[in-house]
Every structure is written in structure tokens, then in C-alpha cells.
Amino acid sequence: MAFLTVGKENNADIQIYYEDRGTGKPVLLIHGWPLSGASWEKQIAALLAAGYRVITYDRRGFGKSSQPSEGYDYNTMAQDTAKLIEALDLKDLTIVGFSMGGGEVARYLGKYDTGRVSKAVFMSSIAPALRKDGSNPDGVDPSVFEEIKQNIEKDRYKFLAGFLKNFYSKKLVGGTDISDEAIHASFGVAAGSYYPGMLACVDAWLEDFREDLRQIKVPTLVIHGDDDLILPIDSTGKRVSEFVPQAKLVVIEGGPHGLNWTHATEVNTALLEFLK
């Protein structure tokens, strides 16, 4: 619906595409990798029907936003989020991050928030920290991410086909939770992303958000599936309360990573109850 200029590269504006619909208290939805704001369609419909103002945007390099060569680190991406929140003058805001978008929520609240956010939601989120090291033994060995990058570099379309089946835990052809056609639609969005940006985001996944989470003082909801093959709940969702004591965890039974589509009814029920 609109574009916001968040910077420049050479002589061209770097623009973030966003959609802003409805009235009432605002809810900002931040999508995951490698999709776009359109991936929230089942939540957008439910939130609008419940009387909320709903804002989505496409991360730089994805969807309809500009595809600059740089800026795929969390400081820059969270700054893009902050610029959009300021430009729209959003207040009493609920900020919701899915998967990689949970990193933007954490970094925004840890570094950029000026009191505009009243609630936070982490859904299938990357937080608190993925990199396994001496201070984070529950993390993932960095070699895993190097292998992901190598597979993307070798044939990103083949990689995406396998990744999205795991994303939705699509074990059997013709399964009822999500159609093959819906997965193909996600593939089309992912395939249209900016290749260098898509690759650079994998490095960003190693960001540590533990200190950002400790800054969060607002009511916080964590929604995570117990069948998440991309970001297993034991390494992510269940650990958020270690750093955000007031966080409430809702476990979606059988929920895969992409549970906002496959288990939209359960997700929307938990989200709307929290917003009340």
C-alpha cells in the first residue's frame, strides 16, 4: 500500500514496503525468513475482524521492499522497524515477530523503543540465542549455519524446496495441515527474494538477543509449536522466560515452524486472548 524511505544506496532510495489497515489499537506483524508480510494473511484477517489496526511490512531484500546490498544485520533491520514505527506514530503498540522477526522484536525493544510498545509477542522465534558457545551450551553449532549457506550457494531453489517442507512439517504429500499449493506459493515468494540478502540473513541468525530480552518490561507472549523442525522449542521458545520472567508460553501441540498457517485457529485464539 505504501513505501517508507529508510536510507540510500548510491543514488537510489532504500524503501520498505508496508501495509496499514484498520483502526483501533495497532498491531505490528514482522515476518520470517525467507517470506514477506503477506505470510501473515490468516492473522491479518482475524485481527481486523476483532477491531485492531494491523500493520505489516516486508523486510529489506524481501517481498516488495528494496534490495540493497547491505543492511542485513539486526541493528539495521531493527532500525528499519523503528523508523516505520516512528513514521506512523504508533503508540500502545503490540509488536509481533515470527521466526527471524522475533530478532527484530528483541533488538527493537532492547535498543530502540521509546515507550511506544505495550505488549510483545515472539512466535516460532529465533530468540534468545542460536549460536552454541561456552556461555550458551544449549545453542546450535555454527557449522550448521555454514552448511545452510553452502546449500543456498549451490542451488538455493533446491534448498528452499526442502526447507519449506520442514518449515511446515510437511511429512506426507496431501497432508491436511497445508496444501502443496500453499507451499508452492511460499516458494514463489522466497524465490523472489534478493539472493545476497537471503544469504546474509543466515549470518544474522547467530546474533545473541539475551541482553535485549532482559530489557523487556512489557507483557510478553511466546507462541511455539512442539513440532518445530526449524527452531526447536527447547532451544528457543521455552528459554525466553529465563530472560523475560513475565513471558507466558503457549505451546501449540503438533505445531510446526509455520504454525501461523497450519494452526492458524489456535495461534489466533492465543494472540487475541493476549491482546485483550
From TrEMBL:
It holds the Pfam family Abhydrolase_1. The keyword Zinc does not apply. The keyword Zinc does not apply. Residues 25-264 form the AB hydrolase-1 domain. InterPro entries: AB_hydrolase, AB_hydrolase_1, AB_hydrolase_fold, Epox_hydrolase-like. GO terms for molecular function: hydrolase activity. Keywords: Hydrolase. It comes from the Bacteria. This is Alpha/beta fold hydrolase. It comes from Granulicella cerasi.
